[in-house]
Amino acid sequence: MAQLATDIRERLLAGGSITADEAYALADTRDVHTLGELANVVRERLHGRVAYYNVNRHINYTNYCVLRCKFCSFYRPYGRDMGERERSVQTVGDGSAIAFDGEGGYELSVHEVIARAKDAYDHGATEVHVVGGLHPKLPFEYYLDLCSGIRDACPHMHVKAFTAIEIIHFSRIARPRLSIAEVLTKLREAGLGSMPGGGAEIFDDRVHDEAFKTKVGEAEWFEVHRTAHELGIFTNATMLYGHVETPLERVKHLLKLREHQAESLRSRRAHFNCVIPLSFIPDGSALADIPTPTGLTDLRTLALSRLVCDNVPHIKAFWIMQSAKLAQVSLNWGVDDLDGTVVYYDITKREGDGTHQELTVDQLKRLIREAGCTPVERDTLYRRVLRSGNTWRVEGEDWEVTHEPPQAPTPRSHDGASAGFVPLTVEV
Ligand code: V47
Question: How far apart are CA 115 and CA 112, in angstroms?
């Protein structure tokens, strides 16, 4: 390892990359500190000691899904008996009401999604991240109205929405059927700003068949991102690790992202802005017997992602998956970006947590500063956000947004069960 690390370090310092063989060798190393140090060479080459964060809101418009991915605890079945299912209306964290069916299924109306986005905008958010299950009945117009409604209600809010899997679903349900390029073009005209990186999981046929067989495979995922990049739409890319895949399969996944990125940088109008390694949360899924990835697996995977995907500008820790504490440590293991204030998140919840999963800006800054980094607020496209009192603007733009005065965060919960989430003490 020592000689390998020396060779790699020299090459990285000179602006070079690690080879596929080196990445495979590093995937197995027990020397996670050296791995982290190497990843930090790339991190600091690109970003120095800056660590980015953003003020955002995640909105999950439905958990009904036609897929049955084994790792997923979010989806609920949409049955023929939907008309007869009893519903109970529960008041959720932001004061709005959601009608849950007896199995916990829900869908938000366009109006409800817009109201949530507006609430976020009024509280200073620069981005909404909107994704959901593959709903068998909602028409394509629902998604168009959702984008245009948010754009009209929140003119400078960036709408980052719909994973590649949802885009493929829309192309199938649209009447008449539409190509991927047509779906993306219509969504962009309606207000879509960029696409998140979800649904990639692990690009490997064996893993696909074992953990998410009914989902489209890597060729379709890449087709959507390739088309988006050709159209000039920036996207992100994820990797879901710590379930049935091996460390070598993770490296293979990252190498495929690096290859795609190289092509986008060479010949397309947009590219991946960041890679987000997602740490598997088994709770409530059909793979609940698999132990949660350990902290060292998290750090190793984040560091490897930085080293392999050195042509992708940012490596993001989505603290919901890795925990705020581990995400903080990862800032010295290759990560340069923390997502984000989040506020509500339905797709994964740890035992005992509710949907209210939030870090305040002060908490994010404290995590970053204690890691020895300089916090910089960014928008979705990694432009600097400048704030003064209740206004914010993006560096280089000639508009500004004025929102409601900031309030001290009050404990809110989606279902009354958020006792497991203990906010960090804030001293800034
Ligand atoms: O696509 C599902 C994953 C993704 C589980 O692009 C799970 O900026 C862990 O993609 N344990 C959604 N992960 C989240 C996502 C994302 C998050 C933050 C930022 C961005 C971005 C994208 O979560 C899904 C799936 O891959 N997922 N179930 C689970 N049990």
Answer: 5
**Residue 42: strand, helix, or coil:** helix
What is the C-alpha separation between 383 and 376, in angstroms, rounded? 10
Closest-CA residue, ligand 1 atom 18, reads 318
CA 371, 277, 343, 234: dihedral to nearest 10 degrees?
110
- Residues 189-237 pLDDT 10s: 999 999 999 999 999 999 999 999 999 999 999 999 999 999 999 999 9
Which residues form the domain of 358?
44-75+109-402
Distance separating alpha carbons of residues 175 and 169, to the nearest angstrom: 12
Distance from the alpha carbon of residue 278 to the mean position of ligand 1, in angstroms? 6
Q: What one-character DSSP code corresponds to residue 136?
A: S
Domain assignment of residue 230, yes or no: yes
Atom 27 (ligand 1) nearest CA: 72
Tally the domains of the chain. 1
| CA 27 to each of CA 10, 246, 250, 359, 406: distance values in angstroms, whole numbers, following the listed order | 19, 10, 8, 31, 44
- CA dist 18 → 43, 154, 257, 273 (Å): 14, 43, 14, 20
pTM check: above 0.90? yes
Q: What is the pLDDT of residues 45-59, one digit of tens each?
A: 999 999 999 999 999
